[in-house]
Amino acid sequence: MPRTSVEDSGLPLPDLGALRAAGPGPAPLALEHHVLKSLLGAWALAACSPEEALAVEVHLGDCGGCADEALRLREAVGLLQRPDSLDLDPGLRTRVLAACLDRRPPRIPVPQWARPYDAESARLDALLQDFGDAEWHAPVRLRWFDGRQATSRRTTVAGVMAHLLAVDGLIALALGLGDPLGETDAETPTPAGRTEAYWRASHFPPTRSVRGPWREQSHGIVRTVSFTGGGAGRLAVSYGDFELPLHDAMIDRAFECWVHAEDIADAVDYPYEPPSPRHLNRMIDLAARMLPGVLAERRRAGLAAPAPTPRHLVPAGEPGRTLRLEIEGSGGGEWLIPLDSPAAVADEDHEVAHVALDGVEFCRLAAGHVSPQDAAAGQLGDNEAINDVLLAAASLSRM
Q1: Per mean pLDDT, which range of 309-313, 333-337, 350-354 is the poorest?
Q2: DSSP string spanning 270-302?
Q3: Which of 96, 124, 151, 389 is spaced 20 to 30 A from 145 at the CA atom?
């Protein structure tokens, strides 16, 4: 870029008296007009030698035509400059809060298990902040795995936010904050049933007006669990056909908030980063802990291979067949998954399979955004057990 003037550099101005005492500086090069005019582009880009730049600048004081041309070239160079991104580092908020809290701990801290939801709802709200009407009505396809195959539902960005408002309302209800559906009763109290009820009750397709109630509800949830303290984490939150303790339900809502933020970002062609590693680790841990129960349900429904005898009779607390789930990259680690029964003990001495996946890829599998066949980065051991676990991971997804 063009060199800044000394007045704009913050450096001390030269001593004019000393300069005069030192005598005149070197004389500028004697160049013809057409040569000086040909150097204007290089001068505007600060690509001239010091001697050439001095000659051009002296000439600009005498030639009005070249001075006008130089001004236009300088303005063009400014337009060619690559603008700095206005997007903030997704980890900036966490770092700023951590630095502040290191100096002054909060009087009422947010529980550790609620922090991923606090962070992900804030990131999604920041994404929505500058959306115009066109972005709010951009088409979005919600995707999930229904236990047998991939399925989807078409909506809009505003429709996705209405979905998050309705499902987050399950936690709001458990905390006594009221139901965002109001007097509308869902046919079933499941996330999908509540979402469909909310969409049906709307006189018009959801618009940007849904952002305010969703954000107010998310603030209310975080504020309430903070005031109730860590002990509230054992409160049961009903999802209709199953329950989660509050501390797990908050991780589940953080996970869905991130997944649907990516759906929205894809719809408007905008980049969106995964959660911080420690929050991603909590999401992966929740999915890994839910896998044995989902696998057992699929086995009862005939969607997974039955446990080989006599292992299907493994008593509670006894070791059974085990799969080692290795998650690589951000938020990674290793989890031992009991295969024969949720009550069985996962034991590395009874390990029959080992599967490795990237952390973000595993989460997208659990969201139903990646097929089980495409998700595994590495497999070793019992192929049937690996396939059942990957299908169970995909079955964690829902609308």
Answers
A1: 309-313
A2: ---PPPPHHHHHHHHHHHHHHHHHHHHHHHHTT
A3: 124
